[in-house]
Write a structure and sequence with these properties.
Helices cover about 40% and strands about 25% of the residues. By secondary structure, the protein is α/β, with parallel strands linked by helices. The strands form two sheets. It has a six-stranded mixed sheet, sandwiched between helices. A four-stranded antiparallel sheet has the order 2-1-4-5. The protein starts with 7 loop residues before the first strand and ends with a helix. The model has no long low-confidence stretch (mean pLDDT about 90).
Length: about 290
């Protein structure tokens, strides 16, 4: 594979769920993701943006086969992830890691921070000795801004931002080529969001890792991503460079997402609130 070749190619990916109907059997089909295609290159950040319920998280999980796709391909460095067997998937996990939305809920409360970060090493690199494993854990903790003397603390002893730093360290400890950030900053305060995003950007520059960054806030996505893909009811309605999508949006839904970003001017904010209300009405009508 050449350097210019994408490391991830998603083609015509769809995810459908069967929804039971009433007491008399039968089912309806919820098309959560519809015919999504895109490429991701080494060292690139692709932002996937859309409102809650538009299929972002479902798409991210289907790409790495945490849930089953209905059809399509997710080709990682020449191999279709969707056709991999369990043994192949286990080998894949060290190259593709995930950071989850709720930093505290994604950590085992019975394990210390050091044990949580070390766990992927135990699974994927069992040949690494305990001393070397702990040295790598401490090194990674320091990279994400956690002191080594926190290594024996439990998740409940950390703030939300610190818990997310543990999640980032856990994701990076195997030196993956891709990290899927599923609403990784949505549960954090605004000031902490900025710290975590800047940390991810710094680590990406240092380690050369690719990011799939999923969020509902297009302003946050613009800050971290080189390209943005906009999802609306499971479909891609727009994709392009961050500047192109934000400064010259082509689709009405993208324009409304941009208009929904809060601004300090009260009059402008009132106009945008009206746009947000209109967006919710149109979304409800489309769902019906």
């Amino acid at each position: 594979m050449s350097d210019k070749e994408p490391i991830l190619k998603v083609r015509n990916l769809s995810v459908h769920f069967k929804i039971p109907k009433g007491l008399f059997g039968g089912h309806s089909v919820l098309k959560a993701v519809k015919d999504v295609s895109f490429d991701l290159h080494a060292g690139e950040t692709l932002g996937i943006v859309g409102e809650s319920g538009c299929g972002k998280s479902t798409l991210s999980r289907a790409i790495i086969k945490l849930i089953q796709a209905t059809e399509g391909e997710s080709v990682w460095m020449g191999k279709d992830i969707l056709k991999m067997n369990p043994k192949e998937l286990t080998g894949l996990r060290k190259d593709i890691q995930m950071i989850f939305q709720d930093p505290l809920a994604s950590l085992n409360p019975r394990m210390t921070a050091g044990s949580i970060i070390a766990e992927p090493l135990k699974i994927h690199y069992p040949e690494v000795g305990k001393a070397e494993r702990m040295a790598r854990v401490i090194e990674m903790m320091e990279k994400v801004g956690l002191s080594a003397n926190m290594i024996n603390k439990y998740p409940h002893e950390f703030s939300g931002g610190q818990c997310q730093r543990i999640g980032i360290a856990r994701a990076l400890i195997t030196r993956p080529k891709l990290i899927v950030c599923d609403e990784a900053v949505s549960a954090l305060d605004v000031s902490v969001q900025a710290q975590v995003i800047n940390l991810l950007m710094d680590l990406q520059k240092e380690l050369g890792v690719s990011l799939l960054f999923i969020a509902h806030d297009i302003a946050v996505v613009r800050h971290i991503a080189q390209r943005i893909m906009v999802l609306y009811f499971g479909e891609v309605v727009e994709i392009g460079s961050s500047e192109q999508v934000v400064m010259a949006p082509q689709h009405d839904y993208t324009k409304k997402l941009i208009a929904s970003v809060p601004v300090p001017d009260p009059k402008e904010e009132m106009k945008r609130r009206e746009l947000r209300r209109r967006l919710r009405r149109e979304a409800a009508a489309a769902a019906a």
